[in-house]
Amino acid sequence: MTNNDKTWITTSNAEDIMKMAYEQLGIKNPSDPIDLYSYISKVTMDTTLIKPTEKAEEWIWVTGYKGTDRDMKCKNDYQFEIGKKFNMPKDADIRTCNSGFHFCTKPKDVFGHYAIGNGHRFFEVSALVRKSDYNAIDDISAGTGWFSMKNDSKIAAKSIIFTRELTVDEVLQFAELDISDWTEEEKRKAMAESIRATEHDRNMRKLVDLGYTQAFALWIIKRNKFDDAYAVGQQKDLSMDMKVACILS
After folding, report:
1. How many domains does the chain have?
2. Is residue 158 part of a domain?
3. Is the pLDDT of residue 25 over 70?
C-alpha cells in the first residue's frame, strides 16, 4: 500500500483492509486492533483513514415558482420549455447558489431575482430537491439557517419541469399589488416594461383628469407630491388656482 493508492476505510470495507494490512505489514497477531490503524497511518501518511459511511440522501418532488426572460431563458442562458423534464448532470453537486436549477417555493420571492417588467415571465414548476434542503427553508427564510439570505425561499433542484405559465393577474397579485382598477392595457405594460412605468402613467392620467396640466402633473410626480395633489384636486369647492397654491406651499 503506497501513498498514491490510499484506501478510505469505511464500515463496509474495514474488514478487508485490515486483512490486507496484516499481510503487507507482516502482523500475525496484533495484541490490540488499534495498533493496526497506527501502522496503516504510517504507511499512507494519513491519520484520518476512518470515516463513517454516508447516509443516502432523500430527494422529493415539490411545487415552486421560477422566473425567466421573455424567451424562457435564465441568467446562464439555459433554454427551458413547458412540459419537458430538465436534469442536472449526475455528478453535479446540487447546492443553493452553487449548482442546480434554482427556483423559489414562495411566489413573491421570485421577484427578488426577476423583477416584474422587461418582458420577464413567471412559471409554476415541479422540482426534485434534497429533502433536508426543503425542510430547512423556514430557517433559511428567517436568516437562521446555513444560507442567510433573509426572507427568501430560493432552493436548488437536480431536476425541474415547467408545468404552466402564471397569468398576468396571478403575477401582479403574488406581488401583492392592488390591481382592482387597473386596465388590461396597464397590466400588459407593467409586464412588458415595469410596474414603476405603469404607475407613473396611471398617476399622470389621474392628475390630468382632475384638471392639472400635463406639465404640472409631471412636476408633481417628480417631486413625490402625488398623494397631496390628488387629495387637493378632489376638493370641488377650491378653484384651480387655490389647488395649485396649496400644492406649492
Report:
1. 3
2. yes
3. no
Q: What DSSP character marks residue 3? A: G
Task: Looking at the structure, tell me whether residues 132 and 84 fall in a common domain.
Answer: yes
The verdict on 123 and 67 lying in the same domain is yes
221: containing domain: 194-248
The pLDDT confidence band at residue 76, using thresholds 50, 70 and 90, is confident
The CATH code of the domain that includes 129 is 3.20.170
Q: Which pTM does this prediction carry?
A: 0.68
**What pLDDT, in 10s, does the model give residues 10-23?**
444 556 666 666 66
